[in-house]
Amino acid sequence: MVLELIVNVLLFLFSIFCFWYVGATMPQSPDNELGAEQWPQAILVLLLIAIGYNIIRFFRTHKKEELGSAFADFFPGILRFLKSKLLIGMVILVVMALLYEPLGFLGTSFFFLAGYSLLLGERRLHVVLVSSFVIMLLLYLGFSVFLGVLLPRGSVPLLRNAALFLESIFQKFK
After folding, report:
1. pLDDT of 173
2. How far, rounded to the nearest angstrom, does the alpha carbon of residue 13 sit from its chain's CA centroid?
3. 105: closest CA among 149, 171, 57?
4. Residue 1, pLDDT score
5. Confidence band of 83 (pLDDT split at 50, 70, 90)
6. Residue 54 contacts by C-beta under 8 Å, 6 or more apart in sequence?
7. Which pLDDT does position 17 carry in this prediction?
8. What is the 3-state secondary structure (H, E, C) of the chain?
9. Distance from the first to the final alpha carbon of the chain
C-alpha cells in the first residue's frame, strides 16, 4: 500500500522532470503550429493529472490508522518482496533482455520460457523442455514467417546455425 504511494510520487516527480527536459532541449516551434516539444508535453500534462488524481484517491480511500500501520510494515514488506517470485521473474526478464542479442531469439526465448515455467512451479523437466521448445518454435514461426519480422540470430555459433537452419526450412514453405 505504501509502495503504491511512493511509486506514484516518484512518477509524478519524474514526469515533471520530463516536462521540463522536453521544453529545455527541444527547439521551439512556430506559434501557429504544434511542434515536436508540445506533443510530449501535452501527454505529460495528462499523465500528471492522472497521477495527481491517483495520489488524492489514495489518501481518500485509506484512513490515517491504516496509513500508520502500512508505513510500519514498509521495510518488512520490502524484505518480503526481495524474497518473492515477482522479483525473480523481473530478474529473469532483465537477463533475457541482456542476452537477446548474443544468444539470439531462439536461445533467449527457450531459456526464458524454461526458466519462467520452473518459476511458476513446473518441476517435470521433460515437460519444461518440450513445452519451451514447442512454444519457442511457434513464436519463431509466428514472428519470422507470418509477420516477416527479422529476429536476431545471435553470435553463439550453435544458436546462429540453428536459426539459419530454421530459416532455410521455412523459406521452402513461403
Report:
1. 65
2. 21
3. 149
4. 65
5. confident
6. 8
7. 94
8. CHHHHHHHHHHHHHHHHHHHHHHHHCCCCCCCCCCCCHHHHHHHHHHHHHHHHHHHHHHHHCCHHHHHHHHHCHHHHHHHHHCCHHHHHHHHHHHHHHHHHHHHHHHHHHHHHHHHHHHCCCCCHHHHHHHHHHHHHHHHHHHHHHCCCCCCCCCCHHHHHHHHHHHHHHHHHC
9. 53
Residue holding cell 522536453? 22
Q: Which triple of cell numbers denotes residue 55?
A: 495520489
- CA atoms of 107 and 105, how far apart (whole Å): 6
Q: Could you give the CA distance from residue 123 to residue 67 in angstroms, rounded to a whole number?
A: 40
User: Grid coordinates representing 33?
Assistant: 503550429
Give residue-wise pLDDT tens across range 150-169: 888 888 888 888 888 888 88
